[in-house]
């Protein structure tokens, strides 16, 4: 067992099995041994690759989307531009470069980055120096006011709770120690009313044996963002893998060096994620006063924003090798069997905004 595993094992010995959300939070953001404290997990040499790292076109089109939203909001100045979990800063650097088509936009934005990883903050500082970002540990300290927000592959990293339906009722899946005390294993807590309070009706109808997930952290954040959108002219874009409707299913996954891993082995050494329940995010934001649009498939969203034309234009000035890379990036971002369908895009806006670009 690694150092974080030993710390979690000591806690379980002292207080008993812990909810998956606690295990996941420690594994991802423990101040010393958490996965996102280790450095840079992205790219071919890391554990996974994300859309902005696949192609510059992803961030550029989001830059155009942000400019369009800013204009429809009445060109507020100043305008908070917030990114949740900016990774290497690639998406935002590409977006701000594309947004130079409207110099007033660049002058109006105040860039705020929500990032827990010190290593990635350093990468973001290098990529976004010119935009003078301010960093935040969480959403709570981001200033209010007119706001544009982007979150790509952020919500999947927020801790989830899992429940299993048994003959006796819904029981929470907890992380315990096995009989050797050297490995983690799943156990079920006694049935409780928590599942009925937290799960959606579509999940509660599941058969005995089914697992259902909920992310109170994701819901709470969507509600807080929704409240911000209801207060001042604003728009937000959430991109992630997940499902449009709340449904039962076990989507917890661990990925290490681009390969699936056991989520209960070596906490902090693999990326732990779960599919995003977009319906739950939309419900939470609407209840807080915002409008929700979509979700739509990433491929459809990017095509509606003109990614194919953008690729053609880039290819026109590219070497044959560069053109090949542009075409392969395009295919990866919009291909049905690649990121085009699994990844979904949800927009949240102030009331009265109507469908944003890419959602019409
Ligand atoms: C999967 S990466 C996505 C990076 C980037 N958006 C991209 O598309 O390349 C998740 C990002 O969210 C950050 N992150 C994860 N959990 C976080 C949390 N609880 N608070 C703040 N940042 C977090 C990570 O450090 C990382 O920057």
Overall form: globular
The CATH class designation of the domain at 37-158 and 214-257 and 266-305 and 339-349 is Alpha Beta
Q: What share of residues are in beta strands?
A: 15-25%
- State the CATH topology of the domain at 37-158 and 214-257 and 266-305 and 339-349: Rossmann fold
Distance between the termini: 51 Å
How would you describe the overall organization of this protein?
The protein starts with a helix and ends in an 11-residue tail after the last strand. The protein is built from 14 helices and 16 strands. It is 38% helix and 23% strand. With 360 residues, it is of the alpha/beta class. The model has no long low-confidence stretch (mean pLDDT 96). The protein has a domain of 217 residues: 3-Layer(aba) Sandwich (Rossmann fold). Strands 2, 3, 4, 5, 10, 14, 15 and 16 form an 8-stranded mixed β-sheet that branches. The structure holds S-adenosylmethionine. S-adenosylmethionine binds next to α2 and α3.
Chain-wise SSE layout:
Blueprint: H1 3-15, E1 18-19, H2 20-29, H3 51-54, H4 56-72, E2 79-84, H5 90-98, H6 103-108, E3 109-114, H7 118-128, E4 134-136, E5 147-152, E6 161-166, E7 169-177, E8 184-188, H8 194-198, H9 201-204, E9 211-214, H10 216-231, E10 234-243, E11 253-256, E12 259-261, E13 271-273, E14 276-277, H11 278-287, E15 291-297, H12 298-304, H13 307-316, H14 320-334, E16 343-349
Parallel strand pairs: 2-3, 2-5, 3-4, 5-10, 10-14
Antiparallel strand pairs: 1-7, 6-7, 6-9, 7-8, 10-16, 11-12, 11-13, 15-16
């Amino acid at each position: 067992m690694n150092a974080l595993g030993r710390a979690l094992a000591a806690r379980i010995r002292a207080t008993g099995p812990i909810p998956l959300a606690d295990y996941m939070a420690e594994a991802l953001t423990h101040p010393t041994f958490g996965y996102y404290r280790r450095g840079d997990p992205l790219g071919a040499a890391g554990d996974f690759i994300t859309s902005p790292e696949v192609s510059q076109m992803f961030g550029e089109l989001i830059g155009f989307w942000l400019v369009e939203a800013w204009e429809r909001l009445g060109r507020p100045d100043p305008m908070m531009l917030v990114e949740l979990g900016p990774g290497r800063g690639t998406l935002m650097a590409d977006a701000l470069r594309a947004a130079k088509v409207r110099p007033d936009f660049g002058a109006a934005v105040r860039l705020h980055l929500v990032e827990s990883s010190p290593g990635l903050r350093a990468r973001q500082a290098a990529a976004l120096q010119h935009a003078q970002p301010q960093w935040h540990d969480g959403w709570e300290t981001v200033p209010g006011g007119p706001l544009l927000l982007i979150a790509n592959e952020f919500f999947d990293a927020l801790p989830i709770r899992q429940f299993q339906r048994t003959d006796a009722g819904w029981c929470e899946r907890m992380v315990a120690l096995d009989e050797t005390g050297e490995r983690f294993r799943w156990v079920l807590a006694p049935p409780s009313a928590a599942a009925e309070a937290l799960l959606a009706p579509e999940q509660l109808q599941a058969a005995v044996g089914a697992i259902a997930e909920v992310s109170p952290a994701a819901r709470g954040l969507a509600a807080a963002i929704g409240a911000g959108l209801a207060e001042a002219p604003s728009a937000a874009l959430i991109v992630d893998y997940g499902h449009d409707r709340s449904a039962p299913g076990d989507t917890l996954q661990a990925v290490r060096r681009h390969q699936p891993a056991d989520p209960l082995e070596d906490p902090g050494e693999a990326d732990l994620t779960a599919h995003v329940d977009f319906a739950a995010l939309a419900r939470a934001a609407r209840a807080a006063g915002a409008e929700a649009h979509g979700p739509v498939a990433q491929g459809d969203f990017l095509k509606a924003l003109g990614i194919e034309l953008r690729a053609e234009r880039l290819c026109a000035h590219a070497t044959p090798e560069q053109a090949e890379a542009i075409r392969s990036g395009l295919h990866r971002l919009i291909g049905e069997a690649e990121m085009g369908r699994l990844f979904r895009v949800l927009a949240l806006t102030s009331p009265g905004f109507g469908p944003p670009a890419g959602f019409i």
